[in-house]
Design goal:
6-stranded mixed sheet, alpha+beta, about 30% helix
Length: about 400
C-alpha cells in the first residue's frame, strides 16, 4: 500500500508531501490543486508502462505547462514514494525516487521528458535500504536479487547496462527470476488506475483494444466490454456485481449483451419482468454506479489474486447520483486498504459527510503561493465539531484546518 508521496515542481505542487491511508477523500476549492495531485498519481502509475512522453500525454492531454510557474528553474520534476508490499509472506518496504528533466521551450510547446535519476530500494528480510535499481541518465545498475539473498560468492550482485533515458527503467524490466521484488514493485505501480466517468462514454459500445478485457478505461469507454468479459468468463464476480447494483436498481435481473462484430458490444439491462433497457435508456447515475461498483469489486479480486491492493482514483463520484445510494457502495470498501486503496475527490457536502467515521482519510488541498498546500484536519477537533454540525458543513465553512 502507498504510504507516502512527495511531488516537487509538478504543476502547482512544490515539495508537496501526501501520506494516504486505505480510503482517502481529497477536498478543496476549485483550482486548489486536487486534480494535480491525482494527475501525479496517474502519471507515476503510467510511467511504469509507457515512455515518459506518452505517460504524460495520457495523464494531462498535453506536454506543456508541466512545472510550477513560480520556480525559476523549470527544467525538472521530482517524485518520491514509499510503499509496503508482501513478498512470499514477508513485508517489504520500498522507496522509489524519480527525477525527470524537461526540455526548455515556450509554455505552449510540448516538452520531452527524460530520466535524470531513478532509484528503487528495498527493506525487509535480508534487505536494509538496499538499492534494487539505480538509473542515471540511462546508465543502469540492477541488483541480482536472488544471488544477493543466497550470498553466492561467484555471482556479481549488480549488473550494469545502458537504456534509453526517455522511459523509466521500471517500464523496461524483463520478467526475470533475478529481480522478483523489483518486478513486484513495478506491477504495483501498474495496478494504479484513474477514473473520471463520463455517462456519454459509458454508453458507447465500442471495444477498446489497447487494454485488458476486464480492465476499465479511465473514462469508462469500455464498460460494455468489461461487463461482457466477466459475464462469459467470471460469473462469480458478475453475481457479486448484481448484488451491489440491486442496491440502486432492485428490479435488476441480468445484464445481457449483443455483440454484432468484434469491435462492438451493446449492453442491456433485463428486469425481473423481462423488460430490456439499452445503455441509451439507462440513467447517467445508474451507469456511473455500475462502473464504480465494478471498480470496487475488481480491486478486491485483484488484491486476492496478485497479493497486493491496487490503487484507484475516482474523481467526483457523486456526479449524477443520489448520495444516499453511494453510502452503501462506499461501505463496501475496506478502509484499511487491504482490498484496494481508494482516493476520491468531491465538492459535495453530502458525500463528504460519508467520511465522518474515517477522519484520518480526509485531506484538504488549499491554494497558496508558490504552491498548493495540504492540510490534515485535527481528528479531535473534527470529532468535537461533529456534535454541532455535519462534516460537509465544516468544509463549506472552511473549518477543516
Amino acid at each position: 500500500m502507498l504510504k507516502r508521496l512527495r511531488i516537487n515542481n509538478f504543476k502547482s505542487l512544490l515539495n508537496f508531501e501526501f501520506k494516504p491511508v486505505g480510503m482517502n477523500l481529497i477536498i478543496g476549492q476549485n483550482n486548489a490543486g486536487k486534480t494535480n495531485l491525482c494527475s501525479a498519481l496517474r502519471f507515476l502509475g503510467l510511467s511504469s508502462k509507457y515512455n515518459l512522453d506518452n505517460a504524460m500525454s495520457y495523464t494531462l492531454g498535453e506536454r506543456w505547462n508541466l512545472t510550477n510557474f513560480n520556480v525559476q528553474d523549470n527544467s525538472f520534476i521530482e517524485i518520491e514514494m514509499d510503499c509496503e508490499l508482501m513478498y512470499e509472506g514477508e513485508a517489504v518496504s520500498f522507496a522509489y525516487s524519480l527525477r525527470l528533466g524537461t526540455s526548455n521551450g515556450k509554455s505552449t510547446e510540448a516538452k520531452s521528458l527524460n530520466v535524470e535519476e531513478e532509484r528503487l530500494t528495498a527493506s525487509g528480510g535480508p534487505f536494509a535500504q538496499t538499492p534494487l535499481l539505480e538509473n542515471h541518465k540511462g546508465k543502469v545498475k540492477m541488483l541480482h536479487e536472488e544471488g544477493f539473498v543466497k550470498g553466492l560468492a561467484n555471482s556479481p550482485f549488480y549488473v550494469t547496462a545502458r537504456v534509453p533515458d526517455n522511459a523509466t527503467m521500471l517500464s523496461q524490466l524483463y520478467e526475470l527470476e533475478n529481480n522478483p521484488r523489483a518486478i513486484l514493485f513495478r506491477e504495483f505501480l501498474r495496478s494504479w488506475n484513474y477514473y473520471n466517468f463520463s455517462p456519454d462514454v459509458l454508453r458507447q459500445p465500442n471495444v477498446k483494444q489497447d487494454i485488458d478485457n476486464d480492465a476499465l478505461a479511465a473514462s469508462g469507454a469500455n464498460l460494455s466490454r468489461a461487463l461482457f468479459t466477466i459475464h462469459n468468463e467470471k460469473p462469480r464476480i458478475e453475481k457479486k456485481l448484481y448484488e451491489i447494483v440491486r442496491l440502486l436498481e432492485p428490479r435488476l435481473e441480468y445484464f445481457t449483451f449483443s455483440s454484432p462484430d468484434p469491435e462492438h458490444v451493446h449492453l442491456f439491462i433485463e428486469d425481473m419482468a423481462g423488460h430490456h433497457l439499452s445503455a441509451s435508456s439507462i440513467s447517467d447515475g445508474t451507469l456511473r454506479f455500475i462502473a464504480m461498483a465494478y471498480v470496487i469489486i475488481m480491486a478486491k479480486e485483484q488484491s486476492h489474486n496478485v497479493g497486493f491492493p491496487p490503487l484507484a482514483v475516482i474523481e467526483e463520484p457523486e456526479n449524477g447520483l443520489y448520495v444516499g445510494h453511494l453510502k452503501p457502495l462506499i461501505e463496501k470498501i475496506d478502509v484499511t486498504g487491504r482490498c484496494g486503496q481508494f482516493f476520491f475527490t468531491s465538492h459535495s457536502p453530502y458525500f463528504i459527510d460519508l467520511f465522518d467515521s474515517n477522519i484520518e482519510g480526509i485531506h484538504v488541498v488549499k491554494s497558496g503561493h508558490p504552491s498548493s498546500v495540504l492540510v490534515k484536519p485535527d481528528p479531535h477537533e473534527v470529532e468535537r465539531l461533529l456534535k454541532e454540525m455535519p462534516l460537509g458543513d465544516m468544509h463549506f465553512r472552511d473549518m477543516l484546518k
